[in-house]
From TrEMBL:
Secretion signal span: none
Cofactor needs: Zn(2+)
Gene3D superfamilies: Jelly Rolls, pectin degrading enzyme 5-keto 4- deoxyuronate isomerase, domain 1
Protein name from the UniProt record: 4-deoxy-L-threo-5-hexosulose-uronate ketol-isomerase
Pathway terms, separated by semicolons: Glycan metabolism; pectin degradation; 2-dehydro-3-deoxy-D-gluconate from pectin: step 4/5
Binding site for Zn(2+): 195, 197, 202, 244
Amino acid sequence: MTKSEFRYAHHPEDVKKYTTEELREHFLIPELFVKNQISLTYTMYDRYIAGGAFPVDQALKLETIDELKSENFLDRRELGVINVGGKGKVTVDGEVYEIGHREAIYIGRGTKEVIFEATGEQPYFYINSAPAHTSYPTKKVTKAEAEVVELGDTKTSNKRVINKLLVNSVIDTCQLQMGMTELQEGCVWNTMPPHTHERRMEVYFYFDLEEGQTISHFMGQPQETRHIFMKNHQAVISPEWSIHAGAGTSNYTFIWGMAGENLDYGDMDGVTPDELK
């Protein structure tokens, strides 16, 4: 079963006036993993889709959704998947890929059939998708194959390891890019100092958060910030005009996915912490 919901894009001047409830309604994706279901959120920010496939005791086929007006989900799209649970398998047009914990798979435009299954363990398949102008081969990417960057410092509580999994320095993609950032012990800040990038939007998905703990995700224009408190296995939409940073009450990991005008990972408009309002 594949279910989807739709989100409009928003003007930053309007977002300034949103209540807490309205902010959460428009930007938070609260439930990604529903038993034996593929749950998707289609956003008008670069027509990005984020969601989760949670096969417990059934195989789940990725079905097209009304917003796409296409026979198959990937007729005009590319797909990225990162498994944040136990080992599972993804079958792509009949070819089986075993996808372990924190492993990824890229699936190119024109693929007819994608099926998600558990293989004795419980996988949590986190999904991102963006429109694609051409087709690139399906490819599995392990964590060992990722481009790894270490940033931050324990002094500023933001020492972290960035694992670039589905990016153009590792595989060919049209515009989709995905990676995973791991906070080091005692560090709680991500993407700090923050930045915006007018040429790309992002979605952040938080996981590995201990029960009873929370993450405060900061968004909004640098001079007009807002925050959303988040739980484990929740995602948040980040517009191109918004910062995207967070601080947790304990360690956590998050997956960033993005699409837009270019594939330049370093294309960022930086903001120093003392400029934030």
